[in-house]
Amino acid sequence: MTVYDAVEIDRLQGGPADVAQYLGKAVLIVNVASKCGLTPQYGALEELQERYAERGFTVLGVPCNQFMGQEPGSADEIAEFCSATYGVTFPMTEKVEVNGDGRHPLYARLTG
User: Fold this and answer.
1) Does the annotation count 36 as an active-site position?
2) In-domain check, residue 1
3) Which of 15, 30, 96, 98 has CA atoms 20 to 30 A from the CA of 111?
4) Residue 91 belongs to what domain range?
5) Residue 3's pLDDT band (boundaries 50, 70, 90)?
6) CA-to-CA distance for 36 and 62, rounded, in angstroms?
7) Catalytic residue among 36, 75, 79, 110
8) What CATH number is given to the structural domain containing 83?
């Protein structure tokens, strides 16, 4: 069993994200926020995406608002910010919780 088996998560802009497509590939799953001290990491993450995508690597951004409310935006606001500010092209998921009782099953698998 892998982290991708039976885990359903939606894309940021709606509709299911096909996480099974990443099976056998290198994927950097990162919880992200647009209003925190680490927000500039979007630029470095995009550089990784551009540099290694042809080798089967991808960044998967997972917005989360659990940490001091640092990702309060709607899906459209998050997408616009990431695109306009950092030129983000890597896939992003819906906003989820990444720890605690309400954590998304993807993060339950990653940390279990």
Assistant:
1) yes
2) no
3) 15
4) 9-17+25-111
5) confident
6) 14
7) 36
8) 3.40.30.10
